[in-house]
Amino acid sequence: MKDLNQHYRLLLGLSDEWKVVDVDLDLNANRVIIDLEHSGGKLCCPECLGSCSRSDTAAKRTWRHLDAMQFATEIRAAVPRSRCLTCGVKTISVPWAGKHPRFTLMFESFAIRVLQAAANVSRAAELLRLSWDSVHCLIERAVQRELDRRSLDSVHHVGMDEKSLGKGHDYVSVMTDIDHRRVLDVSKDRTIAAADDLWQTLNENQRNDVESVSMDMWTAFMTNFTSASISAKRSTRCVVESSENSKPRATSA
């Protein structure tokens, strides 16, 4: 058993702070549960990153991990709580997962790749053996991670368009960074207010750096673009390109 525990510790890439104390195989449930235990010693405050003493231990919780062969695999651990003189009592960070998710970082990364390859969310949920709601939580966290680390300091050419969702006349408005081929933001509906919400994605200095805006001639976009609230914040000359007209129309800020 000692060799098995060491085997799983190496597979999980754990540091000396954590050790595998048990591996439970449940054949009836097709599940493997890996029990971890903190080795003790000084802790690191998850907020200020300062060294601090141990307060107590939180209740045991589990995280879904990558499958081991055909078995769904979970990590189970009681995470210590630090006592920081500045921040108070806090549950320490664990190396295999984020602050709140019920999934390990490796599993979330794998799940996003499955979502990208699957025909739809329902099919991805089936392959991952997760509920539809759990998959959408994974999507929301993945989007938020990318939003947190993206930079908007080099946005010079912006695209704006409306997209129809499903059946009927349900629309969203989309702002894109043309140079870097990425979506900057999405706003519900295709109204002047929706377009204004998109522009708020960029701060005043970033809006001043925009050199051109490409859009179709949808009235709400054109009205919003030429309004004082938008054009007064740009010191450059912008070009509005119509997808319905090959000739660009120039508008000075």
TrEMBL record:
Domain Transposase IS204/IS1001/IS1096/IS1165 zinc-finger span(s) in chain numbering: 44-87
Pinpoint the Transposase IS204/IS1001/IS1096/IS1165 DDE domain residues. 158-224
Residues of the Transposase IS204/IS1001/IS1096/IS1165 helix-turn-helix domain: 93-142
What's the protein here called? Transposase
Organism annotation: Allorhodopirellula solitaria
